[in-house]
């Protein structure tokens, strides 16, 4: 997928904001991709196979930060971590990046069959049967 070429640590742009209805300005943070345009599109496309491709990029230190920010935006997981390290992504690699692939691949494997895109939340959520 051509858009995945833009998943690079030096290109990702994002902001965090308080989710609608949250009473906690700093505890609840939602990651929103703001650039480049191809990553904005990718983050809201709702394509499950993109999660697999982003998880694979977690092995590459030059792309892992951007991949995890996209994963956070698309799944609402680890958003607070992305928020905390937004100004210091190199320190994220030392603290969380080296284990990100194992952590995310395990989560995706355990939850793949339950994930559905919620266009209202602009995120994958677990389907409740």
H-E order: EEHHHHHHEE
Low-pLDDT segments: none
> What's the shape?
globular
For the record, the count of structural domains works out to 1
Sheet with most strands:
2 strands, antiparallel
Radius of gyration: 14 Å
**Roughly what fraction of the amino acids lie in strands?**
5-15%
Approximately how much helix is present in the residues? 40-55%
Number of helices: 6
- The quaternary organization reads as single chain
Q: Could you give the order of strands across the largest sheet?
A: 1-2
C-alpha termini separation: 32 Å
Structural class: alpha+beta
Give the strand tally: 4
Overall pLDDT, averaged?
92
Task: Provide a descriptive summary of the structure in words.
With 129 residues, the chain is an alpha+beta fold. It has one domain. It is built from six helices and four strands. Strands 1-2 form a two-stranded antiparallel sheet. A hairpin with a 4-residue loop joins strand 3 (115-118) and strand 4. The longest helix is centred in the middle third of the chain and has 12 residues, at 64-75.
